[in-house]
């Protein structure tokens, strides 16, 4: 029996008669193929990637397992429809905290259709994609058995400025997340979730090294999922920190050039997370350059007037 | 006595009564302040950067020395005008080969004026900036004492596709550059110019490490100059390979975020140069992903029709 996934934090949802992904009880995730080119592009990517011998194992582990396509009763009642069959990434996880981060300051390929580019550019400009090189697409943070998850509004999350994004990345690994954004996050689980040889930072750095070299694929509008289990961390156990890449409907041929757009955004995210590990307290940024520019202007006007 | 520089490969030139930079015979370079905001922005950057104690010496050596501003007789006959006084980067060099590479897939800051952004976007799209993350702005390659330099047309250079950019980066370090693009470049000087502990790749990697960390400045429309002397290389001497960053009229505050746009483009250039060192022969890129997509489409249509 298929049902809507419990821990989906972004994307279309299979609720209220709408079309969305489904999961079964054996760890498989059924993603309806989007009707336009996107569906076939995503199948093409998984088909190419899963058989690509140039991708090393320590990198392919960051991608969901791919089990082909299958006709499945769609969640919107439209009957049997083709679905991608993938690994259910939160299967077997208990109360996972999950963050979906769309990587890249640009979510569109140069060769994409003009109207699609226009739509994306607007979203990139209105979200943190353009300034930060990534944007939060959605998240859920486990608070406690009583209060469950904190799952802020997606629209709000996507348009946050740098300082608020930094705060959410701290909140994600803090023990005092109840009452959401009110308290100063204690970053209690930062070192065990983000740090260490199996932590999220270490995984992101492995991914980065691959992106510095690979020229096979360019990933537009693709997300990295960050996942861990807070209750395990609270009990002094490994929190099963894990990153996975998802959403490949806009993957293009690399044609011998690295994916500088994805890589730049990934490096920016890495810097945010590194800073939480090395200096968890907030730091102020100054407006020095603009102050100097004003002083220069005044002094130049004086010189020219002499 | 000031005169137009001999080895300028990009930007406005002080020839034919036009406004452009000048050099003296003591190693100084006089750059007229652009009348609009750009002039004061560039002075503000040099003032801030040259006094910034957070910038380590092994990084500040990649920037021209800054000697303040000075009123100088402008090259266009408009009288005494304020100029930036900088280090003349090709002073004391004999027949330098020079390449000016504008870094970043985007040459505009998110906070730049709308009309300026529109102009830049068009140029980024029509040049290799958008696909490659950088574009060649101009170059001169020394051929021989008889034929002098090969200095291709700037307009042509700026719009080259990836394969031609790769070819020019090979040509730059080849001994058989006469007759320009006709012969297959032999990459005779690749290992001595690009490679080694003091070569260009090594310097670019040092710069990259700084960009992975620094959140002080964002450099838009800034260029990296690659320079060396072919005659020294031919005689088995060190070719004085050097990189320098130039053009800071569009530097903005980093505000705690890395310059992911510059970093991505720099990594792309690094990959091009690394490949010339490791596999100088051309390699073919395949259109595998698109072929698979067509196959997927056909098979899905068949499945749904059943």
TrEMBL record, chains A, B:
GO cellular component labels: cytoplasm; nucleus
GO molecular function, one term: ATP binding
Enzyme class: transferase
Pfam families to which the protein is assigned, alphabetical: IPK
Reactions this protein catalyses: 1D-myo-inositol 1,4,5-trisphosphate + 2 ATP = 1D-myo-inositol 1,3,4,5,6-pentakisphosphate + 2 ADP + 2 H(+); 1D-myo-inositol 1,3,4,6-tetrakisphosphate + ATP = 1D-myo-inositol 1,3,4,5,6-pentakisphosphate + ADP + H(+)
SUPFAM superfamilies: SAICAR synthase-like
Keyword Ribosomal protein: no
Example of a GO biological process term: inositol phosphate biosynthetic process
Keywords: ATP-binding, Kinase, Nucleotide-binding, Transferase
Tagged with keyword Nucleotide-binding: yes
EC number: 2.7.1.140, 2.7.1.151
Protein role: Inositol phosphate kinase with a broad substrate specificity.
Similarity annotation: Belongs to the inositol phosphokinase (IPK) family.
Name assigned to this protein: Inositol polyphosphate multikinase
């Amino acid at each position: 029996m298929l049902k809507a996934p419990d821990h989906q934090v972004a994307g279309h949802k299979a609720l209220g008669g709408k079309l969305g992904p489904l999961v079964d009880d054996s760890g498989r995730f059924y993603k309806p193929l989007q009707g336009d080119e996107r569906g076939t592009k995503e199948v093409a990517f998984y088909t190419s990637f899963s058989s690509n011998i140039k991708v090393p194992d320590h990198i392919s582990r960051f991608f969901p397992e791919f089990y082909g396509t299958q006709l499945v009763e769609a969640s919107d009642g439209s009957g049997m429809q083709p679905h991608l069959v993938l690994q259910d990434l939160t299967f077997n996880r208990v109360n996972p905290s999950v963050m979906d981060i769309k990587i890249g300051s640009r979510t569109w390929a140069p060769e994409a259709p003009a109207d699609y580019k226009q739509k994306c550019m607007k979203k990139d400009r209105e979200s943190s994609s353009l300034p930060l090189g990534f944007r939060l697409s959605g998240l859920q943070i486990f608070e406690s058995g009583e209060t469950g998850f904190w799952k802020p509004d997606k629209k709000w999350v996507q348009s946050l400025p740098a300082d608020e994004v930094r705060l959410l990345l701290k909140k994600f690994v803090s023990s005092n997340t109840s009452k959401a954004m009110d308290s100063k996050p204690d970053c209690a689980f930062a070192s065990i979730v983000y740090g260490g040889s199996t932590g999220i930072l270490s995984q992101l750095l492995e991914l980065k090294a691959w992106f510095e070299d690979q020229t096979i694929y360019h990933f537009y509008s693709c997300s990295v999922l960050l996942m861990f289990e807070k209750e395990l961390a609270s009990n002094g156990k490994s929190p099963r920190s894990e990153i996975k890449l998802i959403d490949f409907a806009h993957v293009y041929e690399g044609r011998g050039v690295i994916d500088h757009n994805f890589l730049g955004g990934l490096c920016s995210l890495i810097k945010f997370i590194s800073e939480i590990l090395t200096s968890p307290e907030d730091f102020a940024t100054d407006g020095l350059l603009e102050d100097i520019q004003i002083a220069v202007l005044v002094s130049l006007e004086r010189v020219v007037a002499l």
